[in-house]
Write a structure and sequence with these properties.
Layout (H helix, E strand, L loop, with lengths): L1 E7 L4 H14 L4 E7 L14 H18 L14 H12 L3 H13 L8 H10 L4 H8 L2 H17 L6 E4 L2 E4 L4 H11 L18
Parallel strand pairs: 1-2
Antiparallel strand pairs: 1-3, 3-4
Helix pairs in contact: 1-2, 1-4, 3-4, 3-6, 3-7, 4-5, 5-6
């Protein structure tokens, strides 16, 4: 079974949107998904938070997509927090087989309830929502080994040439953004010998069918 890497960040609302669709998108596809948490670092280019027009567009864009998915965004009071903590806690949960469930609960806490994702109380709530032990998740958030792994994930992002999240990497091809998920699925289906739409005949068709 081939691997697909997903680089994501709990800061990114587009990562929230793509995680909402992951299970449906990958159902019955012959690939395994690997998560690579890559929170924003000092080399983050074109940060929307620093560009008012881009930030206003992002809020409107995420809002209309979320509404179409049946989600109701509630933006956090602060854009940034102590980012290594929730990403380290994610890695601990992922090691125990609950990475996807943890991420879904964490994104809901941040973008549907507007909570500070680095706060102990928020992490405890995320843990309860995904079947994890709250105290263990809080410990994971500050675990030196897990925090070092988050830094290694940042290095892995740089080395792979990934410049934004969410980004999927499949067979050395990159698919950046929630709106490229269908194109990733199309590539996987095509390589597996499964049918995909002929976009020459129907340019506005959904790429994956």
């Amino acid at each position: 079974m081939e691997s697909v890497e997903l680089y994501f960040s709990f800061r990114s609302p587009y990562s929230w949107l793509v995680f909402h669709r992951l299970e449906a998108a990958f159902r019955d596809l012959p690939v395994a998904l690997t998560f690579v948490p890559a929170y924003p670092a000092g080399d983050f280019p074109n940060d929307p938070a620093a560009l008012p027009a881009k930030l206003a567009y992002l809020i409107a864009d995420v809002g209309r997509i979320a509404e179409a998915y049946g989600l109701s965004p509630r933006w956090p009071g602060k854009i940034d927090t102590d980012w290594p903590r929730p990403h380290a806690a994610f890695l601990g949960a992922d090691d125990r087989g609950r990475g996807l469930a943890f991420a879904r609960a964490a994104f809901a806490a941040r973008f549907e309830r507007g909570l500070d994702l680095a706060a102990d109380s928020t992490l405890e709530g995320v843990a309860r929502a995904c079947g994890e032990d709250p105290q263990r998740v809080v410990r994971d958030a500050d675990d030196p080994a897990l925090c070092e792994r988050t830094r290694a994930s940042l290095a892995r992002r740089r080395e792979s040439g990934v410049f934004g999240v969410p980004t999927f990497v499949y067979r050395e091809q990159k698919f950046w953004g929630n709106d490229r998920l269908e194109w990733l699925v199309r590539a996987i289906r095509r390589d597996a010998g499964l049918p995909v739409p002929d976009l020459r005949a129907a340019a506005l068709a959904t790429p994956a069918g």
